[in-house]
Write a structure and sequence with these properties.
The protein is mostly helical and 566 residues long. 62% of the residues lie in helices and 3% in strands. The radius of gyration is 25 Å and the shape is globular.
């Protein structure tokens, strides 16, 4: 622990590192901090972290923190939450730098300021915007740091100075920390796996099989054994914790909600015929979209860099483990996607892809190590630093583009709900419950940056890489409004459409949205029979959608609001 604190302090004392990383974080998240938005799940923070729906889904950490420390996580607190999260994120990314620094030294000693490029690529990855717009961000900022701590414990379990008892203690410590990490977000399991593969890759790359003075084991079997034990113990601990929480807080009462427990040992599985299609969609989302989506472009370039390193040094050192490690970095996310497609029936979503920033940062680290080892000329080092700076700038700009889009989307949602409230108060009996129906779509004028036009060069490249596999594959990403090809997820996701049936099939979350904006006079219909009757009236009479006149219809027992948009 003392050594870890000393290393962290050394990074904090490096003025260039801390100033640059802080500035990059400000450029990346400054708009999101100062311009809050209320979207999916933001209306349900109390339901998640006060009542207990979050641990029902397997994400127990924030719920327990709230119960133990009484920090009122369930209270909506924009600006403060985002600011604290970014500061924690800087700390978490620095822990990853400490991890890689330990692996590299003493063979390669990079100046601490070099790590600003590693941390900068990590922090500014625009894919994080897909999850950062959620309130509390599913704990990803903290989860990154806890995962790094878990890997630091795992790394020490391979120390050649340790006896067996010490190694066992480190393995158990790594298991506890991994349990906490996946308690924030289950996707950190793959971050942990890839982080371990990257650490082993670096050791083999830098030290080889016969180098003296190495601090950690280079043998394959101990790494597989310790990693497997850590994962197994963490799964058992997670199961025990969730069992206790369910019993202590009677969480079974929330099983009526549409919340899925994320568990590799799920009781039900989806039909296998969807597996092949979901693998194809993974290929499109995480490779083909490199033509249109910057974070995927960086991901593909990073994989190419790692692959070149592994092949070159694998042949040069006659070490098969280097190519195998690079293959693992590529294949493990695919395996995760296969597992999710079997359990949930969907490919891995962008908001669950916390490994993407990690791969980009690791590729930059490899390039910095190469420059250091070869004693590159000053002009070449300057050019590389400029190249990394350009990438960071582009990522910051792209991040702000998506945050701004989300802000516009929120303002549109608030305007729609204000107009509906005004119309209801002006001409209807608002003592009656309300049934929301229809499918509201984010206006194209707001979400157009998420579209790729059908006549663009990028779309033609997408066709070249998808048509030989499946000519209908690209159609999965066609916009419902026919405006083009959609390559992101959250920017086109409508809070209004989600809120109509969120959790329990009622529009309770839209009522909560109203309450958060000063409209406290409304309630929603909860009787499923009446809601089905309202849907039949809406479709049978061909009710026009918002904002066309007639989009509201008052019946004997309830009021129908049709949010269909075109």
């Amino acid at each position: 622990m003392r050594e870890l604190i000393r290393e962290m302090v050394s990074f904090v004392k490096c003025r260039i590192y801390i100033a640059a990383v802080g500035f990059i974080a400000l450029c990346s998240y400054g708009f999101a901090i100062t311009h809050y938005s209320i979207g999916k799940d933001d209306t349900a923070v109390s339901l998640y972290f006060e009542d207990g729906v979050a641990p029902l889904a397997g994400r127990w950490c924030l719920f327990v923190m709230n119960k133990v420390f009484h920090i009122h996580i369930g209270d909506f607190a924009p600006w403060m939450v985002e600011l604290v999260s970014v500061l924690i994120f800087i700390l978490s990314v620095t822990l990853w730098c400490v991890l890689w620094k330990r692996v590299c030294e003493p063979r390669v000693v990079l100046p601490l300021w070099n790590y600003l490029f590693v941390a900068g690529i990590f922090i500014s990855c625009p894919l994080i915007s897909e999850v950062f717009i959620y309130y509390l961000h599913n704990g990803v900022c903290t989860g990154y740091g806890v995962t790094a701590l878990s890997l630091l414990c795992l790394l020490e379990s391979f120390s050649l100075k340790n006896n067996r008892a010490q190694s066992v203690r480190y393995i158990f410590g790594a298991s506890l920390l991994l349990t906490v990490a996946i308690g924030f977000y289950e996707s950190f399991a793959i971050v942990y796996i890839l982080g371990g593969v990257m650490a082993f890759f670096l050791l083999r790359l830098l030290y080889g099989k016969a180098d003296a003075g190495i601090k950690y084991s280079l043998k394959v079997f101990p790494w597989i054994r310790n990693g497997f034990l850590t994962g197994l113990v963490s799964i058992l601990l997670r199961s025990m914790i969730l069992t206790v929480l369910k019993a202590a807080y009677d969480l079974q009462r929330f099983e009526i909600y549409n919340v899925q427990y994320r568990n590799i040992f799920a009781d039900t599985f989806k039909p296998e015929e969807g597996l092949a299609m979901n693998i194809k969609r993974f290929y499109v989302m995480y490779y083909v979209h490199a033509f249109v989506y910057l974070p995927i472009t960086i991901l593909v370039l990073a994989i190419i860099v790692i692959g070149i390193f592994s092949l070159y040094y694998g042949i040069r050192k006659k070490d098969i483990m280097l190519p195998l490690c690079s293959m693992a970095i590529v294949l493990f996310p695919v395996l995760m996607s296969m597992l999710e497609s079997i359990i949930a029936g969907v490919p891995t979503q962008y908001r669950s892809s916390q490994y993407v920033p990690l791969i980009g940062a690791f590729a930059v680290l490899l390039l910095l190590i190469k420059l250091k080892q070869n004693g590159a000329a000053k002009w070449l080092s300057v050019c590389c630093c400029l190249f990394f700076s350009v990438i960071i700038y582009d990522q910051c700009a792209d991040m702000n583009r998506w945050f701004y889009l989300d802000y516009l989307k929120y303002r549109d949602t608030a305007e729609v709900m204000d107009n509906v409230a005004y119309d209801l108060k002006a001409g209807y009996d608002i003592s009656k419950p309300i049934v929301f129906r229809g499918a509201y779509r984010v206006p194209y004028s707001i979400s157009k940056d998420a579209y790729c036009s059908f006549d663009s060069p990028q779309y033609r490249w997408i066709c070249r890489f998808t048509d030989p596999i499946d000519p209908h594959l690209k159609e999965k990403y066609f916009a419902e409004n026919g405006r083009g090809y959609v390559f992101t997820e959250m920017p086109i996701s409508s809070t209004l459409q989600w809120g109509i049936t969120a959790f329990d099939g009622t529009a309770g979350q839209l009522i909560e949205f109203w309450n958060m904006h000063g409209h406290s006079s409304f309630r929603c219909e909860t009787d499923p029979v009446l809601m089905e009757e309202a849907e039949q009236i809406r479709t049978g009479e061909g009710m026009p959608g918002y904002p066309t006149e007639g989009y509201i219809k008052e019946c004997d027992n309830y009021i129908i609001v049709n949010l269909d948009s075109y």
